[in-house]
Specification:
Blueprint (H helix, E strand, L loop, with lengths): L4 H5 L20 E9 L3 E9 L2 E7 L10 E11 L7 E3 L7 E13 L5 H14 L1 E8 L3 E8 L8 E6 L21 H23 L3 H11 L1
Antiparallel strand pairs: 1-2, 1-6, 2-3, 3-4, 4-9, 5-6, 6-7, 7-8, 8-9
Length: 222
Amino acid sequence: MATLSSYKKKRNFSSTEEPKGRLTKSGKQLKFVIQRHAASRLHYDFRLEMEGVLKSWAVPKGPSLNPADKRLAMMVEDHPYDYRTFEGTIPEGNYGAGEVEIWDEGTYEALQKESRKRDETILLKELQQGSLKFILHGKKLKGEFALVKMKTEDAGNAWLLIKHKDEYAVTTKYDAEKFTNKTSKVTKAVKAKAARTGVQKKQAVKKSPVPEAKARKQFNEN
């Protein structure tokens, strides 16, 4: 059953502009959104409308159109339907602090062709069974996909996001980062963090000389 209690407990709405949200539904077609999120680590948030909320998965490497890729997708708390249009900054000190932008959006349907109401019934049953099959009608992602829950003992909330072989599938390497806004706040945040990490690594190397160089220096001094 859909609930936003976990979502609300993790957020301080007096300091974040994320939507408080409520259980609500779209019109005749189910909606999906993928948000690029530069938090402590860059990842993509994959969200499917169901039960008046957005069922959500964090995908570290982003989605792929190559069926050979089985992308890890960690299921997280339900997000409000209003979250699908959210873009902006989650301030420091808040859960998921960082920059958020919409990477792709559109409508989706169950792989089995049914009415809007029947679609949702099928999808909810598949979600419970741990094997979702659906068709995306997005700007970047199109065609058949599957979300499959991993069944290993320590899998927890781990799923796999997989592209089916169809007319939209590719056989070449697919990198979601190549299809991003190169001047967006998210991109700038990713580059700034990479630059800081590079500086920190250089400083660490300078402060801690390799053992061989250190030993050579001590030998020469003696």
